[in-house]
What does this fold into?
Amino acid sequence: MRRLLAFAALAAFVIAAPLAAQAADDFTLTIKDHKFSPAELKVPANKRVTITVINSDATPEEFESESLKVEKVIAGNAKATVRIGPLKPGRYNFVGEFHESTAKGVVIAE
It folds into this structure.
């Protein structure tokens, strides 16, 4: 019985460990009132990460960054997934192209 319990615990760890690692590389940005929150998003350097962009506004917005080489239109009241990296340590600006005066932010890889 102890071996069975030990095996079950080991199996749970083997299954859960990659899920925990995956979750650590997932980030969320929210657009509300034509502003990004958080405006500064810190991500690990030298790793590929996933950013879920949630547009809480009724109008579409385009997540754009020349330095990240990303352009993605997100419909109003919708969300989209953006994958970036691996990034060298540094700062990577992004904007909401449809509202550039207010929708600004930066990804900080460290």
In short: The longest strand covers residues 26-32.
